[in-house]
Each structure stands twice: as structure tokens, then as C-alpha cells.
Amino acid sequence: MRIDHVPPPPPTTAVGQSVRQPRVIVALHEGLYGAMSGSGFSNRAFITALARLLPAGRLSVIAARLPETARGHDRRWTSEVHQMLRQAEADVTTFPGPRAPAGSVHGSVQLCDLAGEAAQRVADRASRCLLVGLDIPFLGLAPSVSPTMDLLLVPRSTTALTQPKDVSRVRWERDALRAATLRGGWIGAISSHMRGHLTADYGVPRASIVSVPNGLLREEMTKPESLPPLPFRARAGFLLAMGRSVPTKGFDDLLDALRALKERGVRTPHLLLAAVTSADHRHSSSYQEDLAARIRAYDLDATLITRFSPAIRGWLYSPALRAVVVPSREEPFGRIPLEAFAAGAGPVVATSAGGLAQTVIEGETGFACAPGDPRSLASALQRALTALPHERERLRNSGKALVRSHHDYEATIGAVINRIAPWALPPSPVAEGRVR
Fold first, then answer.
1. Could you give all domains of the chain from N- to C-terminal order, each with its CATH number?
2. Are 103 and 136 in contact (CB under 8 A)?
């Protein structure tokens, strides 16, 4: 594995052309150095699946450099990912981040230009190349790379879903997706909800969309060797809710729901609420401050966690866990229910927002409620907390079966690459037999 260095292309001689191999290049903004949201975990799983599926030396990863002192940099995570890529003989190329703010249109344009330059240098050494842009910051890659390069863009969300009033950003994303499809690029849909959203709200042609449903790897379905210690008040039993500290996650709806249950005289377990920031904030965000104020005002038995750690997900395996709550008002897919199902946690209580409706099905895999409706959420929570042991076990088993049958991420990525870039995969025994 080579880091921060891409050698010059070989001479264009007959010998040079004969040693060129096809390449799959993945551009990602989160997941190489750590994760501050579910996207980081999904991106890591994506490149891990490719490292296993592709022949050695055919994978390249490009990303903006993240200093070790940055909050999103996790040393253990970085070491594990780089070791995995090293074993796959993959190239890792990093470049300085854009000068403009990362969340701005100008910042995304700069990021795409820098990533495009790095990708083109890799492509110059390859016989054929597929460039994969993971998530919103890389939707504008099409103008930055050669038209001969195959392209797959996988938006894990959109600004139209999370910040619909940001008209300039929505317009940039729509134009970027159009540019990609006009040159024959593919757009990956991580759920049927996202497929419908991309066609209806962004005008992406249905023929340009390929299904890339989110999922888990085998190792993400196994219990970690050690679990993080629980806060003292949670040891007798707890509810768990986690995600980015933004209003669309609906954590204020959850606190309102718990208040409603309290007013009904319903006792609830301690709440561990991990509402974490995805930026390098030294102080609490305004939304986190609002959540803390509600907890105090409602006198709720809850612990608010504002700093993210991947270890938090280990609590899904705790025997003291009474329910996992996903109160999102909008969710393109929703990875947390899959993680809960794989851990045998639950029951899972979730809204029917977006992709959550595909995985958390009332009475089958969990308990569902209307998004943005605290009273509906309170009723679903009460159903979960009063479920009989045999019912809880049935829900857990159904959730596990759903993950294993429909959300094996390695199988999903393999099917996608086989469809859009079969030349990157090793020849199948059946194909070799036909040649002979």
C-alpha cells in the first residue's frame, strides 16, 4: 500500500500497456480516519467489501488528509483500515482538504477538483477505471475526471432532505447528478426511499439508478470482545438512542415522548442519548443545549452524550438494554436498526421516516410510529417496554433474519460491481470454462 504518493504513469509502450490493470477508485470524506456518523461506518464497510472482492492491487482509495489532532481522527480506526488496505495491496492517496468550508458549495467544488486530479493520476496507470464517489461532497466529480472513466455516485443523503431551505446547495447537487448521468454515470440508491427521492426531487433518470442497499459486513454482526462501561444509572436497565446532533434525528421528539409517558404515570428505564456533533466543536451545539435544557425541564432520568465514540455501539450488546429508539423525522436509510438486529438488541422502536419503514416493521421486526409525533412515539415505546419475553425474542429473531437475508453488504457490493464494472472482478470459473 502506498500512502500520499502516486507514482508517475508508465511509458506508453507495448510493455507498459501490457502490465496495466483495471482499477476501482473510491473517493470518500469519512471512514478512512474514523467516523462521526453512520456514513463513516458505511463507507468503511464499502471499501472493506471491495478489498475482499477485487483481485489484489486493483483498489485505490482517495481522501482529504485529516490531521491526527482533528476530532474526527481515531488512531485505532485509522490503523485498522490502513492494515486492511495494505493486505489488499491497495493504494491510498490523500490530499490537502479544500480551503473553503467543507459544507459549502465552493468547498465541495474544490474537494471534487482535488479528488478528480488524484483519481486521474491513478487512472493514467490503469487499463480501465471505475471511480466511486461516496456521499454528498463527491456528487460533483463528473466534470473533474476524464469522460472515459466509469462513474458511480452514492449519495447517503441529500440537502433536499436535511436542509431544504439551502436552495443553492440543492441546485448544485441536482446539476451535479445531471452532469453525471449525461456522461453515462450511475447513481446508487441506498434504499427504495432514496430511489424515489432521487427520481422525483432531483430528476435522476430511473435507468441511471442502481440499487446499493446499505448493510453490514460479517464482522459487524458479531459481538465485540469488550463492551464500554455503562454509566451507573443505566446499569439497572436503559434505553439507547444515538446519532448526529441535528433536528432531523428527532431527539427532541423522543424527550417529549418520555415526558408524555411520565405524565401518564408510565415508568421508563434510564435513557442514554448519544446526540453527537459531526464537526470539530469544542462546545455544545445549540441543538445539544436545547436537548440538555429539555432533560432538566422535564426532570427526565437521562444521560446526554455529546462526544462521539465508535465504542458506543457496543452498548447494543448489553443485557441491560431494554429498547433501541430511532426517532428520526427524516432518514434516507437508517443503519442503527440493522446494527441492533445483528446484536440481538431490542426491541427496536423507530419512526416510519424514509428508509426506516423498510426495516422496522410494526409487530414483525419492531415497533413503528409516525415521524415528528411524540405521542405516537410514546405509544410505540410503551408497547415495546410492555412486550412479553417471547414476543421480544420473536422480534429479535425476525430482525436477525432480515439482516442476514437482505443486508449482507459484501454480497450487495459484489452484485453492484458485477453489474456496472464486471471487468474489475476476477474471472468466474463458469466464464473461464466457456472460454476453454
1. 14-215+408-424 (3.40.50.2000), 221-406 (3.40.50.2000)
2. no
Residue 324, phi then psi, degrees to nearest 5: -105, 130
Backbone angles phi, psi at 159, to 5 degrees: -70, -30
Q: For the chain, report the end-to-end CA distance as a whole number of angstroms.
A: 35
CA dihedral 110, 115, 121, 125 (to 10 degrees): -160
Residue recorded with cell 466529480:
141
Please give the grid coordinates belonging to residue 404.
442476514
Structure letter (DSSP) for residue 56: T
> What grid cell was written down for 159?
440537502
Whole-angstrom distance, CA of residue 243 vs CA of residue 176: 28
pTM above 0.85, yes or no: yes
Q: What's the CA dihedral at 41, 43, 46, 50 to 10 degrees?
A: -120
Q: How many CA atoms lie within 13 A of 85 on its CB side?
A: 26
Q: To 5 degrees, how large is the angle CA 320–CA 323–CA 325?
A: 135
Q: Are the CB atoms for 371 and 355 separated by under 8 Å?
A: no
In order along its 436 residues, the chain shows pLDDT tens digits of 444 444 444 444 433 444 689 999 999 989 999 887 888 999 999 999 999 999 999 999 999 999 888 877 889 999 999 999 999 999 999 999 888 887 789 999 999 999 999 999 999 999 999 999 999 999 999 999 999 999 999 999 999 998 999 999 999 999 999 999 999 999 999 999 999 999 999 999 999 999 999 999 998 888 888 888 999 999 999 999 999 999 999 999 999 999 999 999 999 999 999 999 855 556 788 999 999 999 999 999 999 999 878 788 899 999 999 999 999 999 999 999 999 999 999 899 999 999 999 999 999 999 999 999 999 999 999 999 999 999 999 999 999 999 999 999 999 999 999 999 999 999 866 544 433 3
